[in-house]
Amino acid sequence: MLPGHARRVPGVDRHGHRPLAGRASRARAAARDRAGLGRRRPDGAVSGEQSPPGDAAPGPELEIAGAFITRSLDGFFVQDEDGRLVAVNDAACTSTGYTRAELLGMYVLDFVEITAQELGHHWDIAHAGTMQVTPAIHRRKDGSTFPVEAHLFSHEVDGRRYLAGLTRDISERVASVRAMSEAQRRLEERAVESAHHSEQVAGLLQAVIDAAPDLVYIKDRQGRYQYINSAVAELAGVPQSIAIGADDTVVFPAIAEVLRATDREIMETGIGYEVEEYPEVDGEVRTYLSNKAPYWGANGEVVGLIGISRDITAARRDQALLRHAEARWQYAIDGAGDGIWDWDITTGTVFYSHQWKAMLGYDDEDVGTAVVDWAGRVHPDDYQHCLRVIQAVVRGEAAEFSFEHRMRTKSGGWLWIHDRGRVMETGPEGRPTRLIGTHTDITERRRAESEIQELNRRLRWRADHDDLTGLLGRAAFIERASAVVEQRRADGEALAVLWIDLDSFKRINDSLGHKLGDQVLQVVARRLQSASLPTDLVARLGGDEFVVLCPRVDATRRTSDWAERVRSAMAKPVEIDGLQLTVTCSIGLVESGVADDGITQLLIDGDLALLQAKRDGRNRVVKHSAGLHAPQEERVALATHIRSMIARGEVVVRYQPVLDLATGAMVGAEALARIPGPRGDELTPAGFLPHLEALGMLPDLARIVVNRVCADFATEPGLGWVSVNLASEDLADPQLPNASRARSPGAGWIRRA
């Protein structure tokens, strides 16, 4: 609000009307020239050659600012307190379609979709000296609109205040947000589809973890348990249902403070570590070796920890006994059941226990007392590793060793051995002179581990691949394709993507059954793999949609020819159980350069090209171009308009007379539905039925048309019979006949074969 004046909305007088054009007086023009926003040249452009107060010549800063505004790609507008434009740059004219002379005679409300109250609000904020960044809608001379981001600021000269703004067209940004929202919707649909499979995998993993003897648990940032396996519940004596959501004051109250301290350190530092913890079990304090690691949230912050704890009480007890026991015999007692060896490094002789020999199937006389009796039975692939580990201990670089290797049995087979040894005696210089160790047969354990690894491999494969076709699934494809895109950006090479959709596959499923449809999909998958190189990524995104990524495009592989070969291969007849089917496909082709967006944008572009191929008649390849985005936006706008018309019941019913050819008399009529178009025209069924089908609003149209016809029938009984075109799903609606009778009790339904 200006001093000494009642506040009024710029561009609107005290009666709520815009001032007449004649109010732009010379005094106002002089005030505008005195404003620090530049003069208008004779041609109406913004100039930086504004004279400061006094006789001083304009400074270089003002010239630079004027030149910047004049040449800026962003629109520049200056309005006075009446809301009239007093200065604009070339970009402002280009973006709105007005000439400079036309703009300088206009008010802000003439081309900005804003109320007078909102404009006044912006003036109040600017008067307080605050820079504003606000979205707005500008209207071009041709009536079309476009979104902008406006940066507004105010400047006062000689008691007159001016509001200036730099505006940037953000149409592409808005379109990108819409496209990303659609991609997110499709991803969410895919997540729902895979939920059942994920539950099965999760159940299997849960069973494996619950069977483990180790304690497995997850805590949140506040130390509350989010998950525990059966071993934790059994140790704590607390049911899982109670432990989940509780902290250690409930689960392990005796050591809660100690656990909380170690957990807090992990949360704060983000670094995992190993720690020994001492819970009391049945009155006995036991030792658990806990490996804890932080896990991170989507925002990069630590949101909790994951822990695995193993009961090492027995191991610690054994270690204490070993430290106080006699070398060979005490070690033999502790290692009962294992093979014992005792190596005198000074003499080079080795003692091998009876169990050591029997483990490999040898009799006592089959094995001597030399190192070679061991070394000669080690698997050739393991020997060098064994030698390096043992030599490190012999050189005094380590006090003990523990590793796994294979040894040959008397029958010629191989056993997996866990070989452990330690220094028991040293010489005057501290060099080891005696090593004692054990051999433990771990063959069964290794076999079990191998089976678990194979199970995990199969689980990983199933998580990454489509069960029906064996192709990559959507999530795995996105992950691998993203890595390829990044690599192509790094090496400066291009790639290509084919988005493939089978034509009329739903008809095959509906008419011949899902079993045969699945067989068709398997044939299609094999053909795609045959038409692709080993380096290509081939995936099934879901249903009858497939995608192929060519990671490198060069002169030897023209993408258009490649796409056409794929289309031709897919169009060959498919023979299943003596039935020959023709399955064609539509393909959207996208080529990516170095500066292109990631795989998500490539898939969006491929989908647009695919839709265009469908519209062009199917069974063809369409290459993506920038021009495909505009029709997509128009279709979205049209679909929105049609939804609005149906919701408001704004459907026009035209009647086409049906004449008796013999008499020329009207015997009935056919009802024709029309929907008012966004430009004042009428949309025919060809223009609105595809959108209503996609929106699931065909039943709504049917009810509106039938009710309208019944109402007309009631007032014009002379119409005779009226034919209304309905879809099969409309006829299945049991409420439709009842609704029509309610609107027109005299109406009846005629069943026609």
TrEMBL record:
A matching Pfam family: EAL
Region spans: Disordered: 1-61
Residue ranges of every copy of the PAS domain listed in the record: 74-112, 201-270, 325-397
Residue span(s) of domain GGDEF: 493-626
Compositional bias segments (type: Basic and acidic residues): 30-43
EAL domain ranges (all copies): 635-753
InterPro entries linked: Biofilm_reg_signaling (IPR052155), EAL_dom (IPR001633), EAL_sf (IPR035919), GGDEF_dom (IPR000160), Nucleotide_cyclase (IPR029787), PAC (IPR001610), PAS (IPR000014), PAS-assoc_C (IPR000700)
PROSITE patterns: EAL (PS50883), GGDEF (PS50887), PAC (PS50113), PAS (PS50112)
Domain PAC: 271-324, 401-454
NCBIfam families: GGDEF, sensory_box
Name of this protein: PAS domain S-box protein
Organism encoding this protein: Tsukamurella asaccharolytica
